[in-house]
């Protein structure tokens, strides 16, 4: 049931304030001072003492894992590697008993991810799952896990599952950071509080859908697009590009913003839309100069910015504002306008949004 929406994808985009809330509800104490993830309690000693965390996943789940890498290294201070499950399983990877492997999968059925954890388990690693479908194959192979509680996702293009995966990884990063003594009381409480504000901030972003649709209209005939971000917003750039490719069939690439000058800058001209995720954080000044580099070559800049940002407004062709937040929370906010743009561009191009060509909801073949 599409609940009055034209497509499942649009319904699922709009469900995100609720689905993210469902993901953290019951896992954050009422007074917002503690995080409790019951499903991984038994492996917490392994996790907090892990020498290394390896995240395995495919597609959008791999992008969520890459957000997790930034947050885990920042707050938990544990080295993280994010692996495409298909590459990891076939290259005789070095795994030992002090490693913790986290498999991320909406469906819990992705063949490569399942095979990767079976192999890592045989080699003695501790396996944790972050999955959406309860009782699916991956959770049955793991030692412990956290369900994302996003609710059933029908659109082939993953939206609410991604934000729930990122929510779980964010909670894990904060909780492990706290247990390892890296986060003091005040900061820990502030971070938890910031996470609980996400649903209401997303409601605000969703109210600007018509404005975002207007921007989509201007770029619907593009043949290429670039997406740029830095830090934990770089994987959001990758995710924005994937959303556009898979449902609108426009070629799109995501890049870390500073990598642009090592090649992709050659593509920029007045026909190239460049989506820049440029909210206020520690790399803000750097991303502002990346925007200048694009404008100097006549590229069209659509920037996702923190509300009230006048500097970028004066440089970019369009800005989409998101409410101010702590930088660790920005992936959850900034991905949503990118989902909305892709959705509307695909609809305007007459594409089958919920069932794009050549794609299946779960990839159970390798
Ligand atoms: O069910 P999974 O999370 O394991 O699926 C992984 C990918 O197949 C999936 O994220 C795919 O990239 C989506 N179509 C992205 O929207």
Automatic annotation (TrEMBL):
Q: What is the protein named?
A: Glutamine--fructose-6-phosphate aminotransferase [isomerizing]
Give the fragment's position in the full-length protein: 246 to 611 of 611
Q: What does this protein do?
A: Catalyzes the first step in hexosamine metabolism, converting fructose-6P into glucosamine-6P using glutamine as a nitrogen source.
> What are the subcellular locations of this protein?
Cytoplasm
The alphabetized list of GO BP terms reads: carbohydrate metabolic process; fructose 6-phosphate metabolic process; protein N-linked glycosylation; UDP-N-acetylglucosamine metabolic process
Residue ranges annotated for the SIS domain, each copy included: 43-182, 215-356
The main place the protein resides is: cytoplasm
Sorted alphabetically, the keyword list is: Aminotransferase, Cytoplasm, Glutamine amidotransferase, Repeat, Transferase
Broad enzyme group: transferase
Q: Which reaction does it catalyse?
A: D-fructose 6-phosphate + L-glutamine = D-glucosamine 6-phosphate + L-glutamate
**GO molecular function per UniProt:** carbohydrate derivative binding; glutamine-fructose-6-phosphate transaminase (isomerizing) activity
Q: List the active-site residues.
A: 361 (for fru-6p isomerization activity)
Q: Could you tell me which species this protein originates from?
A: Plebeiibacterium marinum
Instruction: Outline the subunit composition.
Output: Homodimer.
Q: What is its EC number?
A: 2.6.1.16
A single Gene Ontology CC term = cytosol
């Amino acid at each position: 049931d599409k609940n009055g929406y034209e497509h499942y994808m649009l319904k699922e985009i709009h469900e995100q304030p609720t689905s993210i809330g469902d993901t953290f509800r019951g896992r954050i104490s009422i007074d917002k001072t503690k995080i409790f993830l019951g499903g991984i309690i038994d492996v917490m000693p392994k996790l907090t003492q892990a020498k290394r965390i390896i995240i395995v996943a495919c597609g959008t789940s791999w992008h969520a894992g890459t957000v997790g890498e930034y947050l885990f290294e920042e707050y938990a201070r544990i080295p993280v590697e994010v692996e495409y499950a298909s590459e990891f399983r076939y290259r005789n990877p070095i795994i030992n008993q002090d490693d913790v492997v986290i498999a991320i999968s909406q469906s819990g059925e992705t063949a490569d991810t399942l095979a990767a954890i079976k192999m890592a388990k045989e080699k003695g690693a501790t396996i944790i799952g972050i999955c959406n479908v309860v009782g699916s194959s991956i959770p049955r192979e793991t030692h412990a896990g956290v369900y994302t509680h996003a609710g059933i996702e029908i659109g082939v293009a993953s939206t609410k599952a991604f934000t729930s995966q990122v929510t779980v990884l964010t909670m894990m990063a904060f909780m492990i950071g706290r247990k390892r003594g890296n986060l003091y009381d005040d900061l820990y409480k502030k971070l938890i509080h910031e996470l609980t504000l996400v649903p209401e901030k997303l409601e605000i972003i969703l109210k600007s859908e018509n404005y975002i649709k207007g921007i989509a209209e201007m770029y619907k005939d593009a043949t290429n697009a670039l997406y740029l971000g830095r830090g934990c917003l770089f994987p959001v750039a990758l995710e924005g590009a994937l959303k556009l490719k898979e449902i609108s069939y426009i070629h799109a690439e995501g890049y870390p913003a500073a990598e642009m000058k090592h090649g992709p800058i050659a593509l920029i001209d007045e026909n190239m839309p460049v989506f820049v995720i440029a909210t206020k954080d520690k790399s803000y000044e750097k991303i502002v100069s990346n925007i200048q580099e694009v404008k100097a070559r006549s590229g069209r800049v659509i920037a996702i910015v923190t509300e009230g940002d006048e500097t970028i407004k004066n440089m970019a062709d369009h800005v989409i504002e998101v409410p101010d937040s702590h930088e660790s929370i920005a992936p959850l906010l900034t991905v949503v306008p990118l989902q909305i743009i892709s959705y509307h561009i695909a609809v305007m191009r007459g594409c089958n949004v919920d069932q794009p060509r050549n794609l299946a909801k779960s990839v159970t073949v390798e």
